[in-house]
Structures are given as C-alpha cells and as structure tokens.
Amino acid sequence: MEWGYPKYSFSARPEVVMADLWESHDLGHNFPRMAKWCPDGSVALAQCENRSFQFIELPTDYQQSDTRVESPDTQPLSKGRVIEQAAPILDYAWYPSASPYTPASYCFVASVRECPVRLLDASDGRLRASYKIVDHRERQVAPHSLAFNLFGNKLYCGFEDAIEVFDVARPGEGSRIYTTSSKKSKDGLKGILSALAFCPSYDPASYFAAGSLNPSSPYSSNIAIFTEGTDGTPMGFLSIDRAGGGIRAAVTQLQFNPTRAHILYASFRRTDCIYSWDLRGDMSSPLNIYRYGGSADSPRSSHDMTNQKLRFDVDPSGRWLSIGDQRGNVSMFDVSNSDATLNMDITPEVMPTLQFHANDDTIGSVGFHPSQPLLLSVSGSRHFHHDQEGHASHESQYPQSDSSSSSDEESDNVSGDHMKRSAPHSFPLDASIRLWNFKQSWQG
C-alpha cells in the first residue's frame, strides 16, 4: 500500500475512544497535563499532575492504517506503565527516532524540578544518562523547555537568560549560550526560556526559535530566531508591529509547520489565539492570527481565561492546526492557504473550520497521530470551587472542597478558642484522555 499523509474527514462527528487516569491519594486527584505521541505513533506519553508519566497504548483496532470502524461504541484505551518522579515535571521530549521496535532509540528526556535533565528508557523507566545544569550559586537548575535538534545528537535546554546545549552521547555538563544583551549585541532575550522549536530542515545552517516567559514590551519581542551554531546573538525577532513590539504575554509554545519550514506558530498564556509568521519575509508582522476563544469583534478577556498552558499541534501534512480551550472545545484550523496573505497590509484573523465539544474540563493538549487521522486530547485542571451552573454531582463526590462542610465544622467548634480550618483540595471535573477518529466517523 502506497504511503501518504493522513486525510481527515469533517463530514460527520468523530468517533471517540476514552481512558480515565488513575487516582492519586497522596497528591489529590490526578489528571493529565499534556500528552505527546511517540514519533512512530505506537504509544503516547502523558505528563500527569501527580508527578508521573503515564504510557497510553494505541488500541489494537487502530494499529493498521486501513482499519474500518464498524460501530460507534466507545472502547477503553490501554493504560501502560507509570514512571513516577520525585518532583514536579517541567517539560519532556521524545528522542526524534524513538520506537519500541528499536530499543536503543526508545527513550525520552525529562526536566524535573531541582534535578539534572534525565534521559529515561521508555521500556522500563531506568535512567540512561543525566545532564546537569548548575547556576552561579551551584544549585541544580531544571530547564523549562527541552528540544532535540533534527539529527538527535544535541539537546537544547532553555532556562533563565540562557540555553544549555548537551552532546547526547556525552552525559554530564554542556555548553552555555547566554541570550541576554551583551557588548557584542544590544539585542537579547530575557527571562525564563519557556519554549524551543527547531526548523524541520536538514540544512547545516538550521535555525531554531526560542520564546520567553517575560511579556514583550512596546519596543522588544519575546520570540527570537537563532542559528544552531549560535553564540547567543539572535538572527531576528518576531513582532506584531513595525516598532518591534511583541505580544504582551508569556510564550507557552512554539512549533514549525512540518511541510513548510518557513512558517512558525506561537501561543501565549491567557491569549485565545495562535499567531503565525513567515520567516522568509517581514517578521515584524504576523502572517495570520488563528482565533479559537471568540470572534474577532468580541474577543474574550484575559481575565476569563485559564493560566494553564494549552498545547496545540499541526498535523503531519502541515494543513491542519488544532487546539483545545478551557471550555472543553477543540478547534481545527485550515492553515494550507496561509501563503495567500503574504502581501496583505492587515493581518487576517482566521476562525475555525471545525469546532466541537470534546471534554468537560480544560483541554491541556491535543496531538495528531504521525500516520493516521487520529487526534489525542487530554483534559483536566485544578478546581477549588463548584461551578454554580453545573457539576453538582461533584459536590457529593468531593465534600472536602465544599464550603458548606467547612461551615458545619466551624459551628461545632464555635465555643473553642481556635477554629479548625482544612486546607482547600483541588479536583478535576474531567480527568481523561480521548482519542478522536476522523477517518471512519459514526453518522450520528
């Protein structure tokens, strides 16, 4: 059978396969923060709230690309092993050629707070190597962003005002690239580097993008382009106006289009849109703005949005961009015609081609399968108060977070000198991982 890019059908509602995560009694109620497919698509790796990694295996019915679904019945995803960590997980990344069929490459790197970067074997969770970053106070620094170069021989780690570069084959210490301004260049990137992305081109002079948690100022941007052999001097900055200013928000993710390496997408914290730039031309103006949280005439206020990172993805063909929101909706954008807006003076705002309700909680990440028309969505977030419009069933299931129960305790102890106050407990409304099939959809 001839290989080709996955083809997505939006003529009918997609079929869903769902799996709930296990509960954690030590750290409250567990939920997945994000999930990433293994490069060969055989498994997905989810980062969980309870400081662990959860493997999700693709159902047997979907292992073959010519699978035809005969019924709309929901099937459980197969939950695999769990790899626990000692501290909160900041970021992780699969090795570029990872596959369970090639044990040597079946691994991933993880950044855990106050620990060296760890290269973990995905088959059993054992430590293969560690890469340490030490600051001027001789403290272990955990990077907020991780990225392999395309050849897989270098690991880039972003942290405050710098990028640490490691030779994957030589564990230990790496070389440091400072991104702040210097005597050599007044331009720089300040703050914690929260996002890294490599251009999908095997050109020896390949470049990568880096984004900072520091919001942009009116005259500087928080996204810069570097070459792989950089000394810390940026090639350029991405902005939204001629003055050079960027988005007044922290960068949460950067990603290049897999088939058009000159297109870069960026998302920002508490912002309901994704920006794209064409790096071949004027980088002072976005190519398109993909809005998923409201209309262009009535965008949502940042105060109404979650502070949680929302991870988007672009399918392997480079045509579809998908992202979830805090209302549990998934938006699909057609980005294939973005080059047509190159000569426009005003940046167009693009609305979703398809939007559907996928989960009953914030969707932390979505991910396209590498070779099949499947989309993985994970949901869950911390809730401390009940929604007045719904979720009443959660009140009886999780009484420790109910304000009425605490008031009863206070009335019982009103005669005492001290009133007992219990610490608030967070809970997710929908802690789940769902697999959406856009190939053979059920006609509802």
TrEMBL record:
Residues covered by region (Disordered): 382-425
SUPFAM superfamilies: WD40 repeat-like
PANTHER family to which the protein is assigned, alphabetical: TELOMERASE CAJAL BODY PROTEIN 1
UniProt-recorded name of the protein: WD40 repeat-like protein
